[in-house]
Amino acid sequence: MKTRTLAAAAAVLFVAGIGVGYSAQKLPPLTPLYQGKPHKEAARALLEVALKQAGKGSWERIGVARVYYLGGFKAEGQAIFDQILAGKHADSDVYRIARVYQEAGEWQKAKPLFDRYLAANPEEERDLAEVGAYYLLAGDRATAERMFDRAFAIDRENPYLTARVAGAYLGVKPQQ
C-alpha cells in the first residue's frame, strides 16, 4: 500500500511539474510588440517570437525565414535557410527554400535547389510540372518541356497538373 501511495504522489508531482514547466514557457502578451509600432519594428519583434515558437521544426522555420527574406530582412532569412541546409534536413526543405527564392525573383538561387530536389525525387509529377513552369517562365522552354513530358508520363489524367502546365505557357506562376 505504501508503494502505491508513493507512486501516486510521484505521478501527481510529475504532472504538476509538467504544468509548471509548460506555463513557464507561455509567451507574454504579443500586443505590446506591434500596437502603435512602426511596421518594420512590429514585424521584427513578431518574427523573433515566431522563430522561438517554431522551435526545431524545419517547415515552421522556413515559414518564418520566408517572411524575413521577402519582407526586407534578407540576411536574417538567409541565415535561417543556411542553418537548415547545413544540418540534417528533408528534401522537402530544399524545395520550400527554392520556392522562396523563386518568389523573390531570384531564379539563379532557386534553380540549383529545385534541380537538387528533383534529382532526389524524380517521380513527383506535381513538382516536375511546377519546376518546369518556372523554367518556362525563365525562358528555358526545352528544359521545361522535358519536365512536362516526365510529369505527364507519370500522370496524364490530373487536371491540376495539366492546368499548371497550361498556365506556364500563359505566364501564370504555379500556385503554391
From TrEMBL:
SUPFAM superfamilies: TPR-like (SSF48452)
Keyword set, alphabetical order: TPR repeat
TPR repeat residue intervals: 91-124
InterPro entries according to UniProt: TPR-like_helical_dom_sf, TPR_rpt
Keyword Disulfide bond: no
Protein's name according to its UniProt entry: Tetratricopeptide repeat protein
Organism expressing this protein natively: Vulcaniibacterium thermophilum
